[in-house]
Amino acid sequence: MLYHIVTYGCQMNVHESEKIAYILEEMGYKPTAKREDADVIVFNTCAIREGAEERVFGNVGALKKLKKARPELIIAVCGCMTQKEETALRFKKKFPFVDVILGTFNLHEIGAYIQKAHSNKVFELWQEGEIDEEKGYNRTSGENAWVNIMQGCNNFCTYCIVPYVRGREKSRKVESILQEVKAIVASGKYKKITLLGQNVNSYGKDLQPQVTFTQLLRQITAVPGDFKVGFMTSHPKDLTDELIMEIAQNDKLLKEIHLPAQSGNNRILKLMNRRYTREHYLSIIEKIKANIPNVKITSDFIVGFPTETEEEFLDTMSLVETVRFDGIFAFMYSPREGTVAAKMEGQVPQEVKNARVNALLALEKKIQKEDKKCQKK
Ligand code: 5AD
Ligand code: SF4
Question: Which of 34, 35, 277, 291 fits a 20 to 30 Å CA distance from 155?
Fold first, then answer.
């Protein structure tokens, strides 16, 4: 009995696939790198951009032949794409040979659904419920262990589908996180722990009593052992001075911050509902650089947001030039059905988005080259 998991999207999905692997192995399945040999194939999907969704549709569609040749093969599709009811229904209609369709909220039930699928097709999309306190993981990321600290997002950036497919922010309990961290350290297999959440800076606001992210970091790094701790993703509007000082002073914290800016222009930032300005963003960067020597700062940017002019795009270019990030991800805006920005007038033509993303990536490449040269000297 063999399983094969195909994962799309962010680290959260990578980590959730580790959970799916754990559940399947508890059921007696073993992993295989070859899809053709598998008895169960799981697609853990991503909905963040249209391109990601198209890839999933293409790859699931390509399994039709395999399923025809081996009807006992079970194909399951889960994750952010299928948490959207319209997309799940589209899957059901377009690919009737898929056996299990589920979303993000009921991912931990995948074992039971796969059992059930031996006799019936399963279509189960749940509403948001309590946070699933973790069962177990088959960790696959080498010396790094991912630890999920929270689910969901309350920010509703106008371009983003995440709040719709992951629900509102829900923090795991400190005790439960600490237990997981202690087990990871005790196993002796990991040198690095990366905490995951869509917006880690607002960790603990929903707990009783409230806990700050910095307090959580202090407790995690107080666990005895030789390991480093990193985290993602931070939202600039919630990044506190307290956290910056903690990163500066705490030897166990990695000197790395992923701080998505998304745009360097205030009008666009406002339309995106990011709730900070270019000036505020730059002031945080200054504080980080002043307090944490050799810090590595990375960021995400979206180009071609509805109504973005060439001049406004150049503000993004100049922000990148000013900060000199250690790495950036640049994305072309992709309208997501159900989000506010998808309905905005002034959608930017594809060729303009292409040109802007290329210009931004070329600038980043130039900066990287220059900075590497400086380091060598
Ligand atoms: N179009 C393009 N990029 C997006 N992101 C989120 N939503 C969209 C979208 N609709 C990007 C953001 C985020 C990263 C994970 O994906 O930059 O930080
Ligand atoms: Fe999406 Fe914004 Fe939440 Fe990040 S903070 S997950 S970009 S809504």
Answer: 291
20 CA → ligand 2 middle, Å:
24
- 131 pLDDT higher than 80: no
**Alpha-carbon Rg for the chain in angstroms:** 22
Query: Is 325 near ligand 1, meaning CB less than 6 Å away?
Result: no
Choose among 215, 365, 270: nearest CA to 281.
270
Residue 160 near ligand 2, beta carbon < 6 Å: yes
**Is 192 part of any domain?**
yes
Q: Using the mean position of ligand 1's atoms as its centre, give its distance from the Cα of residue 122 in Å.
A: 31
Q: Are residues 76 and 171 in the same domain?
A: no
**Mind listing the pLDDT tens digit for each residue in 244-260?**
999 999 999 999 999 99
Nearest alpha carbon, ligand 2 atom 2 = 157
Which tokens belong to 206? Answer: 């929903």
Same domain? For 171 and 190 the reply is yes
The verdict on residue 266 lying in a domain is yes
Distance between Cα 159 and ligand 2 center (Å): 9
The atom number, within ligand 2, closest to the CA of 153 reads 3
Residue 89 maps to a domain:
yes
One domain, residues 13 and 79 = yes
Q: Tokens for 30, please give them.
A: 């073993």
CA 17 to centroid of ligand 1, rounded, Å: 21
266 is in which domain, residue-wise?
A: 256-377
